[in-house]
Structure formats: structure tokens, C-alpha cells
Write a structure and sequence with these properties.
Blueprint lengths: L5 E12 L2 E13 L9 E7 L8 E6 L1 H16 L9
Length: about 90
């Protein structure tokens, strides 16, 4: 079942696509049918730089369990960043 639940977030970073590295300024996170992963549904994350067009996109499709493990790993890693280094 598609949820059509999509979150958009402003980000600061870089992504590497077919044409090399580019800045990313947005991320979209949604649960839907994947374009490529051999799954019925996936948690999809697109890292984008809209000003550069469709080629400035890095897409990831994960099964729900993998997405949960990734989210926990990100939070765990950030929790161990020394004060003053997080950039936030």
C-alpha cells in the first residue's frame, strides 16, 4: 500500500552522481513502490539540487528494516559527535 507520506527537508551537503560531485540542498523521504529495488515497497530517499536539474539527484531505495537500522546508526553516530563539531 502506498502511503503517499512524503517528508521534504532542507539539507547542506554533497552527493556523487554520474557526472561527479554536486551540492545537495534538499532531501525527500517517502514510502512507495521502488523504481529498481526488488521490493514491493521501499523507504526512498532522494538527495537533490533542484537548480541543476534531474541529473543532480542521488536516490536510495531501502527495505523497511534496513531503513530503520540506518536511522538508528545515524542517530547513534550523531550522539557521539563532540560538542562544537556537529555544525548545528
Amino acid at each position: 500500500m502506498c502511503t503517499y507520506a512524503t517528508e521534504h527537508v532542507e539539507i547542506t551537503g554533497s552527493g556523487k552522481g554520474a557526472n561527479g560531485w554536486f551540492r545537495v540542498s534538499e532531501a525527500s523521504v517517502y514510502f512507495d513502490h521502488p523504481a529498481n529495488a526488488p521490493l514491493e515497497h521501499s523507504l526512498n530517499i532522494d538527495f537533490l539540487q533542484p537548480e541543476l536539474g534531474a541529473s543532480a539527484r542521488v536516490a536510495v531505495e531501502l527495505d523497511a528494516a534496513s531503513a530503520g537500522r540506518l536511522a538508528r546508526a545515524i542517530l547513534s553516530t550523531l550522539a557521539r559527535v563532540p560538542d562544537g563539531l556537529s555544525g548545528s
